[in-house]
């Protein structure tokens, strides 16, 4: 920070007040831990809010209403079902899948759900609430998923092909686009078919 009033007492007082106010601001404290069954509602909420903030795209024909129908139903009828699905996934966590949740000062703000799908180790769902993005939460969650797998095997993920921010984020962690793309047939019915592409982080080369 440049100081242009070094010998002005009033200016120095203002600087000190600003500095003190920054110190007094509450600092976020993010912890990543295995989700508990009682976290299922928060996991569903985070996924729904992030989908609604990220995926509607008029150019791709993905409507807000269509996404809402996918994550909650027309009148919220899917909410209880999705909470139960997450609860069951959390309760059955083991060597083939897990759910990690991020808490910022005790509040759930993101999660990642790595697991083996179609014989592939995948990052799985990784979502951070819009207001918690840009604070390193997504990086911590992704690193947790990668650490869970270790670096001796390829790790894959699927990402919306128009989500350039996420693609750039994954590139920074060493993921590369494989060239495989996927169409979400189920979503076409309700106007929420999200085209996805595949990315992979290759296993660390053997030192032998």
Explained architecture:
The strands form two sheets. Strands 1-2-3-4 form a four-stranded antiparallel beta sheet, sandwiched between helices. Strands 5-7-6 form a three-stranded antiparallel beta sheet, covered by helices on one side. A hairpin with a 2-residue loop joins strand 2 and strand 3 (107-117). The chain has helices at 9-24, 40-54, 64-71, 79-91, 137-149, 164-172, 185-188; strands spanning 30-34, 100-104, 107-117, 120-128, 155-160, 176-182, 196-201. It has a single domain, classed as Gcn5-related N-acetyltransferase (GNAT) (Aminopeptidase, 3-Layer(aba) Sandwich), CATH 3.40.630. The chain is α+β, with helices and mostly antiparallel strands and 208 residues long. The relative contact order is 0.14. It starts with 8 loop residues before the first helix and ends in a 7-residue tail after the last strand.
Helix and strand sequence: HEHHHEEEHEHEHE
Question: What is the radius of gyration computed over CA atoms, rounded to a whole number of angstroms?
Answer: 21 Å
Q: Count of DSSP E strands?
A: 7
* Main beta-sheet annotation: 4 strands, antiparallel
What structural class do helix, strand and pairing data support? alpha+beta
CATH superfamily: Gcn5-related N-acetyltransferase (GNAT)
Low-confidence stretches: 1-7, 11-27
Report how far apart the termini are. Answer: 50 Å
Helix content: 25-40%
Strand content: 15-25%
Strand order of the largest sheet: 1-2-3-4
Annotated CATH architecture: 3-Layer(aba) Sandwich
What is the CATH T-level topology?
A: Aminopeptidase
Number of distinct helices? 7
- CATH secondary-structure class: Alpha Beta
Shape: globular
